[in-house]
Amino acid sequence: MDDQEMIDSVLAPEGPPPAPTEKIPTVVVDNMHIVYKVYGAGAGKGSATGALSRIMRRKSSPALTEVHAVKGISFTAYKGEAVGLIGSNGSGKSTTLAAIAGLLPPAQGAVYTDGQPSLLGVNAALMNDLTGERNVVLGCLAMGMTYAEVREKYQDIVDFSGINEKGDFISLPMRTYSSGMGARLRFAISAARTHDVLMIDEALSTGDAAFRRRSEERIRELRKEAGTVFLVSHSNSTIRETCNRTIWLEHGLIRADGPTEDVVQEYENWTSKRS
Ligand SMILES: Nc1ncnc2c1ncn2[C@@H]1O[C@H](COP(=O)(O)OP(=O)(O)OP(=O)(O)O)[C@@H](O)[C@H]1O
Q: Is the pTM of this model over 0.90?
């Protein structure tokens, strides 16, 4: 390459934007460790009475216990993927989602995300004393929708949730809902918007079969709308129905990561040997 060619190549405009078929990373998890710090573990040591008596006796605070929940995991998720997270109880699935959402700081390693990840958990906070109606409006506004968008989507959200199938529950306070009804409404609100990265933690397992079918369909649509979906579930059939890729976590480490059918099959073989 002569000098002129070199200058031309440096000054040349950047190439065209990547073709849609190209894999665009949305979440990069690099050697991530998550450690929970539990203060005052042990009977009564965390209570106010215990604290006061320690202060009076000028004793130091009780020992700190650390739980190393995620022990150095790495993976990259891409636009258009639906990634299932499976593994036995306490293997680190919910912790991984919370860390991707930015709710837990990694003790080591890093998480990089493109866009704002939204974590939809069964316990995602809505206001229990407000009616379902009010919560739909609040939830939508909190996700950044305009009043006009909320008005447009409102009926779809209520219909999707199925809250009104057994009467006019949407105008009752959310505290009158069963846990399954609450979870359905939360999912319906959250799924009304396209997310860059949507993370769903077991929210689908509380619904009945019809609601599960609607949710699975909606997750497929969200994938098509080019977001990335993460789904934690103990239901292997839900994972098979919705996810093209699955990560199996065990003891805070990745045991397998690949096409859903292969990974779920491996997990099922492992669980059947254990029982
Ligand atoms: N707030 C917390 N404080 C301390 N330890 C925690 C906390 N939350 C979770 N852990 C611990 O972290 C580990 C991973 O928990 P996590 O909830 O991520 O697992 P999981 O795979 O989602 O489990 P499950 O399938 O039962 O929901 C477990 O050992 C758990 O005891």
A: no
